[in-house]
């Protein structure tokens, strides 16, 4: 499923990296531990997290993730948003908790 | 082909720079996607370990047609018990580093799982050297 269709269906806010909205999404991964994502996420996934610093984008880029989705209305630090623009990887935001948004994303992808 | 990168302890803003450069180089050399993926995971973890746990380090990447060998040599506190450090969940990361989501104690196990050879030697109070090799899947 295309990222921009998911953004629409789940009413997500695009915070940065709009260029990345055309990407194809394979699945999702919910974690706040960076080495867990590094070791276990797969390319094309949306990463659901509450981490808002620049290292998140470094991992998203190295792992070819489709996007980063911040929960509970969290906003990225400026350096994180900047890198999202550079990498062309979208940062999305939702007011929902990680549990709630993971459930909704699971439903539309599975 | 050989490349060198410097890594600075505590510099989280630039953590992953060497990994990102090496990923680009391996892509240009047409290394298979599956090999690039596992090398990048291992290199990132080892690079971030210097940032999180040591003072400074040098990453040397040797690329041959059949293998990629990476050596990360740092000046730092060293690792007193390497077997313990290799255990999933073991971490001495500071509370600040943990708050960023590092410090799960999964980095070294990730390296072990993704590389074909992993050798760690360390001297307490001097530093740590990590050598890792991936044998490439050449068609
Ligand atoms: N280069 C290093 N210098 C000194 N100590 C190290 C180094 N690399 C690893 N260690 C020690 O080994 C422990 C385990 O490392 P590992 O990478 O598995 O986990 P971590 O770095 O603590 O957390 P994570 O990698 O999950 O973010 C570290 O907490 C640290 O005590
Ligand atoms: Mg680590």
Describe it for me?
- The complex is a heterodimer of chains A (110) and B (139).
- Helices cover 40% and strands 19% of the residues of chain A.
- Chain A is of the alpha/beta class and 110 residues long.
- Chain A has one domain: HprK N-terminal domain-like (Udp-n-acetylmuramoylalanyl-d-glutamate--2,6- Diaminopimelate Ligase, Chain: A, domain 1), CATH 3.40.1390.
- In chain A, helix 3 packs parallel to helix 4.
- Chain A is globular.
- Chains A and B meet through helix 2 and helix 3 of A and helix 1, helix 2 and helix 5 of B.
- The site of adenosine-5'-triphosphate has 24 residues of chain B, from helix 2 and helix 5.
- Adenosine-5'-triphosphate binds next to helix 2 and helix 5 of chain B.
- List the helices and strands of chain A in order: HEEHEHEHEH
Query: What ligands does this structure carry?
Result: adenosine-5'-triphosphate, magnesium ion
Q: What is the arithmetic mean of pLDDT of chain B?
A: 97
Q: Give the rounded overall mean pLDDT of chain A.
A: 98
Distance between the termini of chain A: 11 Å
Radius of gyration of CA atoms of chain A, rounded to a whole number: 12 Å
Strand order of the largest sheet of chain A: 1-5-4-3-2
Structural class of chain A comes to alpha/beta
> Which pair of chains has the greatest number of interface residues, and how are they split between the two chains?
A-B, 20 and 23 residues
- The H/E string of chain B reads EHHEEHHHEE
Strand content of chain A: 15-25%
Strand content of chain B: 25-35%
Estimate nothing, just give the exact number of structural domains of chain B: 1
How much helix is in the residues of chain A? Answer: 40-55%
């Amino acid at each position: 499923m295309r990222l921009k269709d998911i953004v629409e269906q789940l009413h997500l806010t695009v915070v940065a990296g709009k260029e990345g909205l055309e990407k194809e999404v394979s699945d999702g991964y919910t974690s706040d531990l960076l080495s867990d994502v590094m070791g276990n996420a797969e390319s094309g996934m949306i990463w659901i997290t509450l981490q808002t610093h620049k290292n998140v984008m470094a991992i998203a880029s190295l792992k070819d993730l489709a996007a980063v989705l911040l929960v509970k209305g969290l906003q990225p630090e400026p350096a994180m948003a900047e890198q999202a623009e550079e990498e062309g990887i979208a940062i999305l935001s939702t007011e929902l908790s990680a549990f709630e948004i993971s459930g909704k994303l699971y439903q539309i992808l599975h | 082909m050989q490349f060198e990168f410097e890594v600075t302890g505590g510099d989280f803003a630039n953590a992953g720079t060497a990994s990102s450069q090496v990923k680009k180089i391996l892509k240009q050399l047409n290394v298979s996607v599956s090999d690039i993926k596992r090398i990048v995971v291992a290199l990132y973890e080892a690079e971030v370990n210097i940032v999180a746990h040591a003072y400074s380090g040098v990453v040397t990447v040797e690329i041959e047609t059949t293998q990629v060998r990476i050596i990360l040599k740092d000046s730092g506190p060293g690792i007193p018990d390497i077997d313990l450090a290799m255990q999933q969940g073991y971490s001495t990361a500071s509370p600040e580093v943990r708050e960023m989501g590092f410090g799960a104690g999964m980095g070294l196990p990730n390296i072990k799982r993704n590389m074909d050879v992993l050798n760690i030697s360390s001297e307490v109070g001097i530093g740590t050297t990590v050598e890792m090799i991936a044998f490439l899947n050449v068609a």
